[in-house]
Design a protein that fits this description.
40% helix, eight-stranded parallel β-sheet, alpha/beta, 8 strands, TIM Barrel
């Protein structure tokens, strides 16, 4: 617990420094701890340290941990991985926020998975910042169309945009493109102000470009266990 506390504090200090350097209020940022491959016991430790936002990349792991950590008050699960439409019901049942809506079929599947009377699900539209169509995310030219489609589904609430920095260029210019795409999204959904960007290696650049939600894993959790 002591090492975890120290790593969490160190990352939060770096986030605060980056926010102040960008002229932003650190309190306006949401730090999501990605617990990929770690046990639910680590989630419980994080919760005791005040963490309320945690993230998972895989539906099976999300669903299992959401059950195992179901007694932790105020915990919000963020699904940040690529989603298959046939997993939409399970994802919706476990997640508070889905960051990776990148096609109309997935938006439709998440909408169809809503239970009667269930609150709207917060979603972000993932955009591809590379020229590789195999990478996750909608092409920038198709963002407005996807935004209009998702915004028309009453059980979804489009909160903003998400992206992963490309591997073959510095993160700063990529995140500046994302800032511009976030403005494009707001022409369709005016209150979609969230920008989910920035991981352990590049969250300072993401903060400088306006990120509101940071997805940070091993810098806080420590090395990931071998996949079971």
């Amino acid at each position: 617990m002591g090492d975890l506390r120290a790593r969490l504090a160190a990352v939060d200090d770096r986030i605060a420094d980056a926010a102040r350097a960008a002229g932003r209020d650190p309190a306006a940022l949401t730090r999501i701890v990605v617990t990929k491959f770690h046990p639910a016991s680590l989630v419980a430790e994080l919760h005791r340290l005040g963490v309320r936002d945690v993230g998972e990349n895989r539906q099976q792991e999300l669903s299992r941990k959401a059950v195992e950590a179901g007694d932790l008050d105020g915990l919000r699960w963020h699904f940040i991985g690529q989603a298959q439409t046939n997993k939409a019901r399970a994802i919706r049942a476990a997640a508070s926020v889905v960051h990776s809506v990148d096609r109309a079929r997935l938006a439709d599947a998440l909408h169809a998975a809503a239970e009667p009377g269930e609150p709207a699900l917060d979603v972000l539209l993932q955009v591809n910042l590379t020229d590789d169509p195999g990478r996750g995310g909608v092409a920038p030219a198709e963002l407005e169309s996807l935004a209009a489609h998702a915004a028309g589904l009453p059980s979804l609430r489009v909160r903003g945009i998400m992206a992963v920095a490309p591997l073959d260029e510095p993160p700063a210019p990529a995140f500046e493109r994302l800032r511009g795409l976030a403005e494009t999204l707001r022409t369709v959904v005016p209150d979609a102000g969230w920008i989910s960007a920035g991981m352990t290696a590049d969250f300072a650049e993401a903060i400088a470009a306006g990120a509101t939600h940071l997805r940070i894993g091993s810098a806080i959790t420590g090395p990931r266990p071998q996949r079971g």
